[in-house]
Amino acid sequence: MIKKLNLKFIESQRELMHYSLQDMSDYMGFKSPSTYQKYEKGDYKFKADMLPTLMKVLHVKSIDDFFCK
User: Fold this and answer.
1) What CA dihedral angle connects 9, 11, 12 and 18, to 10 degrees?
2) Burial class of residue 54, CB neighbours in 10 A (0-12, 13-18, 19+)
3) CA–CA separation, 2 vs 23, rounded Å?
4) pLDDT band at 69 (very low <50, low <70, confident <90, very high)
5) Which of 17, 39, 15 is CA-nearest to residue 29?
6) C-alpha to C-alpha distance for 44 and 32, rounded to whole angstroms
7) What is the DSSP letter of 4?
C-alpha cells in the first residue's frame, strides 16, 4: 500500500512555526520560494531523502506524521 503525503499537514506545520516560503526554500536548499511552494502544493513530489530535513525544520517527531491516515 502506497501512503500519500499529507501536504496540508506540512503547510500547517510551516505556518505554525511562522516560516515563510522563503525560509523553507532556504532550509531545503532550493533556489526560490516558488520551487518550495510547488512541493507543498503537490505540483512536485517530495522525495524520501527530503523528509528528514522537513522533520527537523518543522519539529515533527515521527515521519509517519507526514502521511495521510
Assistant:
1) 150
2) buried
3) 30
4) confident
5) 39
6) 14
7) P
Type of residue found at 35: T
* Pure H helices in 17-68: 21-28, 33-41, 51-58
Given a cut of 90, whether residue 28 has pLDDT beyond it is yes
Residue type, 1: M
Q: Helix, strand or coil for residue 30?
A: coil
Position 1 pLDDT exceeds 80: no
By the 8 A CB rule, do 58 and 17 touch? yes
* Residue 27: Cβ within 10 Å count: 16
> Residue 31, SS3?
coil
